[in-house]
Design a protein that fits this description.
The chain is built from 20 helices and 23 strands. The chain has a five-stranded antiparallel sheet, with helices on one face. A five-stranded mixed sheet has the order 10-13-14-17-18, with helices on both faces. Helix 13 links the parallel strand 17 and strand 18. Helix 14 crosses helix 17. The longest helix is centred in the N-terminal third of the chain and has 20 residues. The termini are far apart.
Length: 616
């Protein structure tokens, strides 16, 4: 932080909003470089602090903005080590007791000598006192004069300076501005993206002892920022009581808030909203609103030892808390289920305004299934886990199915603490299993979480959703299928030279239709087969389509192919015919079968194969 009197702010929105004035220009970086240069020069020359302050004053008078110059200088002073002249002499190798006397000892001796008689009202009397003290202390007159005020702030010497680049200094200054502003807040609300960021921030909140609660909130914070701020449709907000909400110890509490800020801004996506109390002579105490997000923050605002955290998903190759989690994520991705695996999703809100962050979340169709992996554990640990699961807020109905939590709990059965506790531990595991659905409690060994129960459950959801989507397939989708397989083909019969594939050739990709309407391909197939069963896929002109693999081929195209196949007996000639009509290669064999032909193989060479029409 920087001193409150050096805080640069601007008031906007008719005096309702407040914001720091950040350093954003090249001129600001150049100013930082000049100030750093003065500190480095003072360090090399071992100048007194007073001389350094004078030189900074010259930069201040030239620049004009004293708050900015002094604020940057204050940050650099914290990177300096100042010593008095006696300490400097010792470090320079002058360690004789006769030559080095502490300033307070010299001053005490001078005042005692002066009090024995009249005060030094004349230069002569002053000189007599100095000479007397010098003889008593065993040093010469010059040492007395040079060291008597050596411990005053302006006489301290720059003994060491930890230099820094101008860009990092500006970033540090911008961060310090927000920290100083938040020192006067009554409430601070934090919105983050990703459970890994939440876990780190909440850990820091508890470490520094801040008072907080966490909850779901409408998108007032997320609307101002990028679309990433709304994570899976939710905005999770952590509200912190600010220093100005305290009756005492506001400085200690405000320092704790400042320590938390670097952890917040290191998240991939973040947003802050705070209510600030400011005092002024004209209006007295007044409340202002301050809000900022990562997108609105200056480009330079991070500490050098803080790298932006990334969303920890299994796809991103990020680090894991344990090898068990890493093995599970890699193995799950190999099955290519279509479900998105997200590591450490956003927190689940508990009824006491605290949070529970599972290890993984599976997401698809807007459904969220969670997984918590319990590795090393004790009885107390399982008790705390049970307590959290029972306190999940009732409004989170998406976490429940059949009145049970829709979450898998994988417990390492290798880590029973001792044999005499087996019964206690078994009872605990039973209680844990009673909180979740059947088959959602998994006991694993040897560091491998079995996937069978999870994959089976996700597959059952896939089948359920595919049937549901198929039964409610939009009329627009079915109408487009009719248009592509009937209408356009009819329009293009006048131009038989057009055989460029796709809809203009009477062939429609089911996969492309499914992607366009954002539904599974299997749902489209089920909807089409339902129409076939009901014989509703024939229009007034008698045209229809044939389902071949993952494609639809119009009835008019089928008639053309059947007519041409009557004079063909070679399998390869049939393949060449299909290619001429732009029939996808994956459909060739299936199409021959659906048109009533068998393939007669004569060895492994396809050029010797023939086709024969099956007898009806």
């Amino acid at each position: 932080m920087i001193p409150l009197q050096l805080l640069r702010v601007k008031i906007s929105n008719k005096g309702k909003n407040i914001a720091p004035i950040f350093c954003t220009s090249d001129e600001d970086v150049s100013l930082a470089a000049n100030i750093i240069g003065e500190f480095e020069e003072s360090w090399k020359k071992r100048d007194r602090k007073g001389l350094l302050t004078d030189r900074i004053g010259l930069i201040e008078s030239k620049h004009g903005d004293y708050k900015l110059v002094r604020g940057i200088s204050t940050l650099l002073e914290r990177r300096c080590t100042f010593v008095n002249t006696s300490e400097q002499s010792r470090k320079n190798g002058i360690d004789s007791v006769d030559l080095i006397i502490e300033p307070d000892v010299i001053r005490r001796s001078l005042f005692e000598e002066s009090s024995k008689s009249d005060f030094a009202l004349t230069i002569l009397r002053r000189e007599e006192i100095i000479q007397s003290v010098a003889r008593q202390l065993g040093v010469d007159r010059e040492n007395v004069l040079n060291q008597m005020w050596g411990d005053l702030d302006e006489n301290l010497v720059v003994e060491n300076f930890d230099s820094i680049t101008p860009a990092i200094l500006v970033a540090w200054y911008n961060l310090a501005l927000i920290q100083t502003l938040l020192f006067s807040c009554t409430t601070l609300q934090v919105a983050l993206h990703g459970g890994s960021s939440w876990k780190r921030v909440l850990r820091d909140v508890k470490r520094v002892g801040l008072m907080y609660n966490i909850r779901n909130q409408p998108s007032t914070l997320a609307d101002r920022t990028s679309k990433n701020m709304t994570y899976h449709g939710d905005t999770i907000v952590c509200s912190l009581d600010g220093p100005q909400s305290m009756f005492k110890m506001t400085e200690i509490y405000g320092t704790a808030i400042a320590k938390l800020l670097p952890s917040i801004i290191s998240a991939e996506s973040w947003s802050l909203q705070a209510w600030i109390i400011r005092k002024s002579v004209s209006v007295g105490r007044k409340m202002y609103e301050f809000d900022i997000s990562k997108e609105e923050a200056p480009r330079l605002m991070a500490l050098p030892d803080q790298s932006n955290s990334k969303k920890l998903t299994a796809k991103s190759g990020s680090s894991f808390d344990s090898t068990v989690e890493e093995k599970f994520a890699i193995k799950f991705q190999q099955f290519r289920t279509g479900w998105t695996l997200i590591r450490e999703p956003d927190p689940i809100i508990l009824d006491n305004d605290k949070a529970f962050i599972p290890d993984f979340m599976f997401e698809r169709y807007g459904r969220r299934i969670y997984l918590e992996i319990v590795g090393f554990w004790t009885t107390e640990y399982i008790e705390r886990k049970i307590g959290k699961l029972t306190r999940i807020s009732s409004p989170n109905k998406q976490l429940y199915k059949d009145d049970k939590l829709d979450i898998f709990i994988a417990v390492n059965s290798d880590y029973y603490t001792a044999s005499k506790y087996k019964k206690v531990e078994k009872d605990l595991i039973t209680r844990l299993g009673s909180l979740v659905q059947k088959d959602h409690l998994i006991l694993y060994k040897n560091g491998q979480v079995p996937l069978k129960a999870i994959l089976s459950y996700l597959k059952s959801i896939d089948q359920e959703m595919i049937r549901r989507i198929a039964s409610t397939a939009s009329n627009d989708l079915l109408a487009e299928i009719d248009r592509l397989t009937i209408g356009i083909t009819q329009d293009n019969n006048e131009d038989d030279s057009r055989t460029d594939g796709g809809s203009f050739s009477g062939i429609v990709s089911i996969g492309e239709l499914a992607e366009k309407y954002n539904i599974p391909s299997d749902s489209v197939l089920i909807a089409l087969r339902s129409r076939e069963a009901g014989n509703v896929n024939v229009n007034d002109n008698g045209r229809s389509y044939l389902i071949v693999g993952t494609y639809l081929i119009s009835h008019s195209k089928i008639l053309e192919l059947e007519k041409s196949l009557n004079s063909i007996s070679s399998f390869m000639d049939a393949i060449f015919l299909f290619k001429k009509y732009n029939v996808p290669e994956s459909c060739h064999v299936d199409l021959l079968s659906k048109l009533g032909y068998d393939i007669i193989w004569r060895g492994m060479d396809s050029t010797n194969a023939s086709i024969e029409r099956r007898k009806r």
